[in-house]
């Protein structure tokens, strides 16, 4: 999801928009001091190919480094373990890795460390949620067929040349493939992952600036600085203790009380107070995040003739301006397309693409919903996870807006699920019976990442199982295009298919928000709204 001419066309467009990321003051700090930060239990064990949600992703970004790394200020894909990535045709790539890299257990990182990891992630029998990321590599249809058993255990498109070199053959041209290689699914794995998998899962071993010391589910994870880390982005602190909170209002209260150093998602209820509470220790920075309402297309009630009108009518019944101003204190911006302004126009952001379907228009909303056959079952139940403390407010506000627009105070209600993990498990099991909260945090700043993982048939994060042959065809064409402007234009054509079908309702673009204690300095959020933990100084 996330050489030279191939890497530049979208990331450079993002750079200017992201350069204003906020940060704390200077100071030397205590490189041995540990900081504490709010967190939530990840949905799955922390296998790189099996983690596709934010909480688990935070940890993977701390304990792993891949071939590429995304610049914490601009989002640009920069070489990390990659010495060079060569291609002459955007389909066959030769990857050379740098000398001197090891895992935190001392094992040298070789080309085989990557090839074995990718083969494991792609294999159907390993049931990894990010298997789709390897879908462009030749032989994926054999190791991960759409039906039946796999007929191969290894991707034919991956070949180890020597300890420092391997080749990748894709099924088709994919000009920006190198830019995706900073995504955690492409991380290398040590031999211990395969020889004693259960032990590795209980205490993952990676190659990043931090190592996991301990983890108690529902309580906390302790990460410590890896002193022998060979990268140039070493930890500037002694470690990070990630404390589990089921309500980020509680986390915020703990921050103010001096019991927590960092909250990386300021709850909506506190936004009106945060500047007074924290002053310069509050961060509100642009991020590649969009919030939408997704739909269960596996439920015939939401996938029949006229359903697109119902979805468009619901979109027009939502007063985005009012909600972002009153609930979110302008830390959100009403969405008018399905990507993010951080891409910039050159990168594919198209302000106003949604058109009137994203404008509040109660009269037209009622008309379209009626023409589409009415609300399934007479009521919309928006499912969301209730453990962060933030979602209930805006879900209630969305439903109030819908109810007011339709003149029916029971047309829309919230449907809370206790925890994020339970919420994700219900989505994965295809148990949604109506629209549900769907936030998307980009993996890398390419328009492709806002479209393909979410709307391509059977894509890794296509939770509603929407499918459209024309969309798929346009995405394939865009991926194969090496000309910058043509690639962006073709992706925008694909986005218009999403728009015309209202595959999901875009709500708002989200800023990253954080607050921190006076013990910390040099605090900032990266373009993905995740704290740059390794740069934080304590004391």
What does the model show?
The two termini are 37 Å apart. The chain is of the alpha+beta class and 539 residues long. Helix content is 30%, strand content 19%. It has helices spanning 4-18, 54-63, 111-122, 140-143, 191-195, 197-202, 248-257, 274-278, 307-316, 320-326, 344-347, 362-371, 391-406, 420-428, 447-455, 469-480, 484-501; strands at residues 34-39, 68-70, 77-79, 82-87, 92-97, 158-162, 165-169, 210-216, 220-225, 239-244, 262-263, 282-294, 332-334, 380-385, 412-417, 436-441, 505-516, 520-521, 537-538.
Oligomer: single chain
Uncertain stretches of 5 or more adjacent residues: 1-26
Strand content: 15-25%
Rounded mean pLDDT score: 91
Largest sheet data: 5 strands, antiparallel
Helix content: 25-40%
Number of strands: 19
Q: What is the CA–CA distance across the termini? A: 37 Å
Report the principal-axis shape.
Answer: globular
Radius of gyration: 23 Å
State the helix count. 17
Helix-strand category = alpha+beta
């Amino acid at each position: 999801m996330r050489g030279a001419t191939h890497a530049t066309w979208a990331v450079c467009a993002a750079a200017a928009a992201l350069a204003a990321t906020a940060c704390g003051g200077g100071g030397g700090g205590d490189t041995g001091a540990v900081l504490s930060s709010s967190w939530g239990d990840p949905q799955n064990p922390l296998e790189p190919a099996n983690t596709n949600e934010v909480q688990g992703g935070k940890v993977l970004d701390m304990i792993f480094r891949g071939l590429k790394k995304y610049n914490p200020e601009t989002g640009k894909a920069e070489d990390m373990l990659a010495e060079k990535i060569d291609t002459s045709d955007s389909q066959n790539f030769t990857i050379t890795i740098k000398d001197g890299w090891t895992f935190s257990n001392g094992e040298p990182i070789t080309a085989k460390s990557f090839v074995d990891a990718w083969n494991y992630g792609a294999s159907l029998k390993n049931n990894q949620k990010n298997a789709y990321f390897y879908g462009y590599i030749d032989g994926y249809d054999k190791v991960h067929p759409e039906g039946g058993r796999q007929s191969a255990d290894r991707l034919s498109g991956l070949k180890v040349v020597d300890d420092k070199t391997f080749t990748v053959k894709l099924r088709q041209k994919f000009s920006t493939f190198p830019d995706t290689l900073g995504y955690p699914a492409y991380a290398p794995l040590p031999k211990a992952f395969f020889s004693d998998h259960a032990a590795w899962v209980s205490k993952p071993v990676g190659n990043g600036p931090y190592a996991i010391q301990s983890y108690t589910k529902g309580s906390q994870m302790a990460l410590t600085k890896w002193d022998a880390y060979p990268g140039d982005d070493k930890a500037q602190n002694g470690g990070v203790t990630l404390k589990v909170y089921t309500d980020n209002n509680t986390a915020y209260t703990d921050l103010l009380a001096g019991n927590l150093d960092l909250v990386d998602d300021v709850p909506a209820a506190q936004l009106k107070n945060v500047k007074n509470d924290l002053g310069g220790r509050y961060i509100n920075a642009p991020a590649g995040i969009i919030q939408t309402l997704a739909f269960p297309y596996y439920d015939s009630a939401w996938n029949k003739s006229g359903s697109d009108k119902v979805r468009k009518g619901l979109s027009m019944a939502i007063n985005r301006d009012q909600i972002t101003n009153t609930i979110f204190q302008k830390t959100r911006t009403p969405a008018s397309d399905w990507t993010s302004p951080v891409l910039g126009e050159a990168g594919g952001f198209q302000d106003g693409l949604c058109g009137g379907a994203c404008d509040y228009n109660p009269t037209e909303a009622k008309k379209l919903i009626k023409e589409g056959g009415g609300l399934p079952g007479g009521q919309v139940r928006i499912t969301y996870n209730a453990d962060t403390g933030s979602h209930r407010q805006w879900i209630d506000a969305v439903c109030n807006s819908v109810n007011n627009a339709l003149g029916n105070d029971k047309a829309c209600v919230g449907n809370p699920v206790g925890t994020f993990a339970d919420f994700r498990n219900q989505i994965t099991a295809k148990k949604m019976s109506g629209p549900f909260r769907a936030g998307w945090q980009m993996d890398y700043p390419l328009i492709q990442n806002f479209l393909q993982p979410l709307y391509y048939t059977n894509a890794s994060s296509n939770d509603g199982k929407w499918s459209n042959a024309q969309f798929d065809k346009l995405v394939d064409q865009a991926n194969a295009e090496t000309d910058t402007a043509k690639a962006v234009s073709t992706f925008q054509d694909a986005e218009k298919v999403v728009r015309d079908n209202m595959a999901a309702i875009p709500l708002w673009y989200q800023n990253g928000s954080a607050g921190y204690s006076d013990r910390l300095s040099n605090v900032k959020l990266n373009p993905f709204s995740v704290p740059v933990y390794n740069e934080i100084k304590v004391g």
